[in-house]
Amino acid sequence: MKTLPTLSEIRGILIKEIASAIGESEASVSLQINEFTKENETYVITGTFTVVPFIFVTRSGRILADVVQTEAGLRVVKLKVTGDEK
Description:
Elements: H1 7-22, E1 29-39, E2 42-51, E3 59-70, E4 73-85
């Protein structure tokens, strides 16, 4: 039986993927999960992100992600990032 992932683990993998998708540092990306559901073996997450490299927000937007748990760990199978620069 698989151990269920924690919300912190899911948040960590999503921040890594979002940062990579928008070309920013993981340390500057903040994520707020608005909705978290499980459909079959897939976790469906919607939320908002902001990029704060120092003091001022430079980007913000929304995410929609599908995350699955494999034997090797968590994997993002779908990530939709929308937003614009401020």
